[in-house]
Design goal:
single chain, mainly beta, Rossmann fold, Jelly Rolls, Immunoglobulin-like, twelve-stranded antiparallel beta sheet, five-stranded mixed beta sheet, 10% helix
Amino acid sequence: NADDKPVLWGNYSGTPVNTITILEGITSKLSADKIIYDKGCDLVEDKVTRSYFAYCAIDGENGLKATYWNNPDFSGEIANTQKIKNPIKLTTAGNFAFAPGVNLEKFSAKFETEFIAPATEEIVFKGGATGYFELMVNGESIRKYANWRTLISRIPYKVEKGKKYKIEIRYAQLNDWQANIEFDFGKEVSVDYSDLIKKLKGIETIIFVGGLSGKLEGEEMPVNFPGFKGGDRTNIELPSVQRNCLKALKQAGKKIIFVNCSGSAIALTPEIETCDAILQAWYPGESGGQAVADVLFGDYNPSGKLPITFYKNSDQLPDFENYSMKGRTYRFMEDALFPFGYGLSYTRFEIGQAKLNKTEINENESVELTIPVKNIGKRDGTEIVQVYIRKVNDSDGPIKTLRGFQRVIVPSGKTVQAIIHLPYTSFEFFDRTKGEMIVTPGEYEVLYGNSSDIKDLNIIKITVVR
């Protein structure tokens, strides 16, 4: 993800004016001779594809035959025919046509070849397109879809040695989408990290920019990789190829800073062992690369807090079809890897004893909580003070619920008072007998601190009289 612009955009469908990749952000901090860049590994695939294009031929020539029409129907007068000797990678970006005489829009193409299998084995077709895409083998449709962006999918297929297979790809530009198609196929072989380790000889610190991307997670996407299906995630683990790459780097004695790009939680339990630091960057937008670099090089003191729970592993998250909230989110579980509201800074804060302006409230009254926040570190910083409420003796209710927070800027060595206003509705919880959210008289715990983790919270009690 370090040198990938679209990953910063997430599922945004536009094209930003100027995108700064994370690699570009880092190069703005250091001279070129102090940086070695390598992709390292794929985001999700733990194998590389050894192309079988050399085993393809048609009409007595190696490669594929491409036929183009200036309509989306694969019919009428042919606009052009070409022979393609290498894996397909065609786009109209920059107003470049797929071939001379072919329109930029409202055109179609057919790519044909014959493949003689060198061995009895499972091969993979890898391709994707912006527009209409259909892959056919021996006249049988293997994959077909229409999509507004190019998402490379993996399609396994078993072949027999010496047998001939007719491969045909049909493509059509659709709507106002910029035409694009990529296709290759071959045998998968396992990734070997030894060359990467050799390249990094003498390098002490690695910034590993990994995680996911909008090409893997989203809505209704033609994606099928281990851990991902149709845009959904089938587990929440970091893809094994990245996990194994991080292990290899750790075993080589490297200091690893892991920048995780994702739009959802990832189980990072092994990574807290292999990595010296983890920065959750999400999909940070067109200037996200500069923002990440500013944090990594200490030019900005981070103060973000997790808006979701990061679980320890996939097994910790109950089955999706189980609608019980037990074990889900900070409101119903305590044993997260990184809890809701968690986040570190380059300085340290002490949360002092809070004071309530009243310990009992009546209907429609509010309460004010004053919380001292001391910066005991050497840098000025910002802390997010969080207030949670729990209804005492509510066995079916949440163990805590966020009801207020305040962002406070605290100079080094100073103390600032965070003042958080809690209206009467802050004590509202679901009443199962009445089937509605109401405030009921009784005792409540007000928990305050800098994350939802019980170890980071202090408790003060308040009573609702009526």
